[in-house]
């Protein structure tokens, strides 16, 4: 079904709304991006993307790859962390606990907390968005250059993903998601019964199940694959001992709420700087308020940007090393940030 057909079937008269805590309900619907090798070996099309929309309860049956679990621990919403449902909704990138403790003194009043959020927390988190997206782009570049120098690239395009180092494979898949044609809907949708996308009434009515979804009527729909990647809601299958597990391709940068309500994403190939555009959306329509343009230019030559510089930025730790995000004095956090953009030329600066 085309994007136009989906949009025409989606009434736009009411915005989805949820009651307090309903986003943790087993009945609440979410989306993930499931990425598999492309069945047809077509030049330039190496992945198949499927948007899977199911309830949180159903996603609790989607087991997380045990090798992936430790990295996901900070984002877990339940006690076990064994399934995709344990990581929904995505919190997006999270500031370090030590930084939060400095921003939010324990004796702050309510009004002071509001001021601390607006003045320090939100601005720091926005800059961390920029850093993480820029690092993700660098990771995709590094993975591609390394793979092209070995047999890994041939393994990738031929669908032999089990022969590739997991981190390199994640970078190669993320790179392909940046290249997904945004003029069309994803390769496929699951389930094919699309009733979940057809809100006849506001979901505040008792007969409706809550959902936290990017709808076909939203400006974010064309870039949904990239949006789900940025929210940490993109996965690939891993087979082990007869079981199917799901491996997260990239850790969360944007939250589920941000990709559903705030930012639609698009990619531009001829710029090194991102942009945010305010959208004209009628009140009550289910759409994002802004369109964020993510730069994804060609990889610069070795003369302009070395492979080591790309790797240094892609792997830079937020707290330690030569390129930290946080400022510290004598090991204690300061209310300040450092490297929210790369110190090297030609590595894109994102905007979210």
Write up this protein:
Helices cover 30% and strands 19% of the residues. The chain is of the alpha/beta class. Helix 5 packs across helix 7 (166-178) and helix 5 (110-148) packs antiparallel against helix 10 (307-315). It is globular and about 60 Å long.
Overall morphology: globular
Helix content: 25-40%
Whole-number average pLDDT? 87
Strand pairing plus helix content: what structural class? alpha/beta
Order of helices and strands: HEEHHHHHHEHEEHEEEHEE
How is the main sheet built?
A: 5 strands, mixed
Descriptive terms for the model:
three-stranded mixed sheet, 352 residues
Offer a concise description of the structure.
The protein has helices at about 5-10, 55-60, 65-70, 95-105, 110-150, 150-155, 165-180, 225-230, 255-260, 305-315, and strands spanning about 30-40, 45-55, 190, 235-240, 245-250, 265-270, 275-280, 290-295, 325-330, 330-335. With about 350 residues, the chain is an alpha/beta fold.
Question: Secondary structure elements and their pairing?
Answer:
Layout: H1 3-8, E1 29-42, E2 45-55, H2 56-59, H3 66-72, H4 97-103, H5 110-148, H6 152-157, H7 166-178, E3 188-190, H8 224-230, E4 234-240, E5 243-248, H9 256-262, E6 263-268, E7 275-278, E8 290-295, H10 307-315, E9 326-329, E10 332-337
């Amino acid at each position: 079904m085309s994007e136009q057909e989906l949009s025409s079937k989606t009434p736009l008269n009411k915005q989805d709304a949820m009651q307090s805590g309903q986003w943790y309900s087993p009945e609440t619907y979410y989306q993930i991006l499931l990425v598999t090798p492309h069945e047809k070996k077509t030049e330039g099309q190496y992945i198949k993307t499927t948007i899977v929309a199911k309830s949180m309860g159903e996603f609790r049956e989607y087991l997380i790859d045990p090798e992936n679990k430790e990295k996901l621990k900070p984002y877990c919403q339940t006690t076990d962390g064994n399934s995709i449902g344990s990581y929904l909704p995505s919190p997006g990138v999270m500031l370090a606990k030590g930084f939060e403790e400095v921003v939010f003194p324990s004796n702050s009043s309510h009004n002071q907390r509001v001021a601390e959020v607006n003045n320090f927390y939100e601005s720091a988190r926005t800059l961390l968005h920029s850093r993480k997206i820029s690092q993700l782009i660098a990771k995709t570049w590094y993975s591609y250059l390394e793979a092209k120098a070995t047999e890994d690239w041939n393994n990738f395009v031929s669908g032999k993903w089990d022969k590739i180092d997991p981190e390199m494979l994640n970078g190669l898949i993320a790179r392909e998601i940046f290249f997904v044609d945004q003029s069309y809907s994803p390769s496929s949708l699951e389930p094919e019964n699309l009733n979940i996308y057809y809100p006849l009434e506001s979901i505040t009515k008792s007969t409706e199940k809550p959902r936290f979804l990017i709808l076909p009527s939203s400006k974010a729909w064309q870039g949904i694959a990239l949006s789900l990647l940025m929210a940490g809601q993109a996965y690939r299958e891993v087979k082990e001992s007869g079981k199917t597990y799901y491996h997260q391709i990239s850790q969360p940068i944007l939250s589920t709420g941000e990709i559903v309500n705030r930012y639609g994403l698009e990619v531009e190939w001829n710029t090194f700087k991102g942009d945010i555009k305010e959208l004209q959306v009628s009140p009550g329509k289910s759409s994002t308020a802004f369109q964020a343009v993510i730069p994804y230019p060609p990889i610069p030559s070795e003369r302009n940007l070395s492979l080591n510089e790309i790797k240094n930025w892609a792997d830079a730790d937020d707290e330690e090393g030569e390129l930290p995000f946080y400022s510290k004095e004598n090991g204690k956090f300061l209310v300040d940030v450092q490297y929210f953009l790369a110190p090297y030329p030609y590595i894109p600066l994102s905007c979210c």
